[in-house]
């Protein structure tokens, strides 16, 4: 069994960790944890992401095996994105980090204000 | 109770999430989860980080209230970094994401290779 360790500079798990914690990946995983969605639906829920950057994020997630992209033969054509079984195993750990950010945002903002007061 | 939601563009929890998932923060939290450490010790364990970037990461973590920096009145002076109680609550969620990266690195690398074969 190979041993991966993100603390080692040459370990490929580092690039995996980088992708998971890309700016938009945790939010896309959150949206797709509710089920498959079309590009426009994802973009509607992840506020502030540009079409270009969301396209890049989804492509990178597809390349990493986290998301499938399925073109439906409808008119107009329609593309659905869905978490793969591998992608679904990410929902819980990423939700824990996201939820930490939401639950502790106030404490962090207060800490920043205190720090900035001390430094000024 | 205020409601924070990282999916909302203006929500301050977004910047909190960004900091948690900064390139080096999960690794520094991992190292400090074993107890207080000096700058050089942290740098020795987080392979590949430059002194400049580690300094910036630790300062940002200190500002966010995750880490304390204590100067010891020794000769030469010595500075210890330690997780605050708030920082310690991050150990488990960040370890889950790091450990996902390590445990699934192989699957992700295989998915990338398959994807790149298809695209070429």
Q: What order do the helices and strands of chain A follow?
A: HHEHHEEHH
Largest interface: A-B, 57 and 57 residues
Widest beta sheet: strand line-up of chain A: 1-3-2
Strand-residue proportion of chain A: 5-15%
CATH homologous superfamily name of chain A?
Answer: Winged helix-like DNA-binding domain superfamily/Winged helix DNA-binding domain
What is the oligomeric state here? homodimer
Architecture of chain A, CATH level 2? Orthogonal Bundle
Shape of chain A: globular
Q: What's the tally of helices of chain A?
A: 6
Number of domains of chain A: 1
Average of pLDDT of chain A: 93
Structural class of chain A: mainly alpha
CATH topology of chain A: Arc Repressor Mutant, subunit A
End-to-end gap of chain A? 52 Å
Could you please describe the fold and organization of this structure?
Chains A, B: Keywords: DNA-binding, Transcription, Transcription regulation. Chains A, B: GO terms for molecular function: DNA binding. Chains A, B: InterPro entries: HTH_HxlR, WH-like_DNA-bd_sf, WH_DNA-bd_sf. Two copies of one chain form a homodimer. In chain A, a hairpin with a 5-residue loop joins strand 2 (67-72) and strand 3. The first copy, chain A, starts with 12 loop residues before the first helix and ends with a helix. The first copy, chain A, has helices at residues 13-20, 25-32, 39-45, 51-63, 85-88, 91-119; strands spanning 37-38, 67-72, 78-83. Chain A has a three-stranded antiparallel β-sheet. Chain A has a single domain (13-119), classed as Winged helix-like DNA-binding domain superfamily/Winged helix DNA-binding domain (Arc Repressor Mutant, subunit A, Orthogonal Bundle), CATH 1.10.10.10. Chain A is mostly helical. At the A-B interface, helix 1, helix 2 and helix 6 of A face helix 1, helix 2 and helix 6 of B.
């Amino acid at each position: 069994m190979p041993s991966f360790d993100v603390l080692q500079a040459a370990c490929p798990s580092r690039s995996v960790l980088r992708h998971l914690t890309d700016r938009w990946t945790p939010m896309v995983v959150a949206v797709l944890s509710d089920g498959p969605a079309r590009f426009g639906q994802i973009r509607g829920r992840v506020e502030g992401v540009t079409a270009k950057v969301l396209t890049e994020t989804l492509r990178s997630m597809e390349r990493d095996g986290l998301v499938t992209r399925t073109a439906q033969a409808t008119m107009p054509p329609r593309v659905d994105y869905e978490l793969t079984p591998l992608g679904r195993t990410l929902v819980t750990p990423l939700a824990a980090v996201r939820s930490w950010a939401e639950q502790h945002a106030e404490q962090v903002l207060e800490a920043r204000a205190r720090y900035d007061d001390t430094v000024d």
